[in-house]
Amino acid sequence: MVFYFTSDVVSPPVTLFMGADKHENEDLIKWGWPEDVWFHVDKVSSAHVYLRLAPGQTIDDIPNSVLDDACQLVKANSIMGNKMNDIDIVYTMWANLKKTPSMEVGQVAFHKDKEVRKVRVVKRINDIVNRLNKTKREAFPDLRQERENRDRLEREDKKKILRDKKEKEKEEEKRKKEEAELRSYATLMKKENMSTNYDGNDSDDFM
């Protein structure tokens, strides 16, 4: 089961989501999207909260208000972290999550520590947590199927882009060929006109 929350601090609203338990977290780790940003309380057990970026967005594009919502949601869903003040929330792109066979269920590391960002959360803000909890809904998505559908659409888009590129190249090649033929025809006509206008007499020859 996956829990979904709507953050309406931006327009259009964005969705935050997390697994119901460590087993769901494992599936989210396995079938995450390249557009997903992962959030967790630093050095403390907590929920794994995700934000799915829009196509073309980067981690730098996350508005501060959305970042606040994600961090408060993570803190609120950590047994220890929820009771603590001045805690750090770490976040990174899904592709930076590292999972090895020896790790426990739901446990992750990072491929590159320098790509992990950190935010200090001074305290729980009930207004934010309550607002998000009012939007909470449960679902049982087929995470694998969703990822496969996403990858299929991406492949189709790439194929379309490649087809469009080739078509434009063909059109450009055809245009250049037609221009070359026109230039060649114009040159030929010019030579023919010069030949036709020449009468064979020297201009200084008077009778």
Automatic annotation (TrEMBL):
UniProt xrefs under Pfam families: NFACT-R_1
Highest taxon of source: Eukaryota
Region (Disordered): 147-207
Segments forming domain NFACT RNA-binding: 1-111
Parts forming coiled coils: none
Biased segments, Basic and acidic residues type: 147-182
Assembly behavior: Interacts (via cytoplasmic region) with ILK.
Family listed: Belongs to the CCDC25 family.
Name of the featured protein: Coiled-coil domain-containing protein 25
Organism expressing this protein natively: Euphydryas editha (Edith's checkerspot)
Biological classification of the source: Eukaryota, Metazoa, Ecdysozoa, Arthropoda, Hexapoda
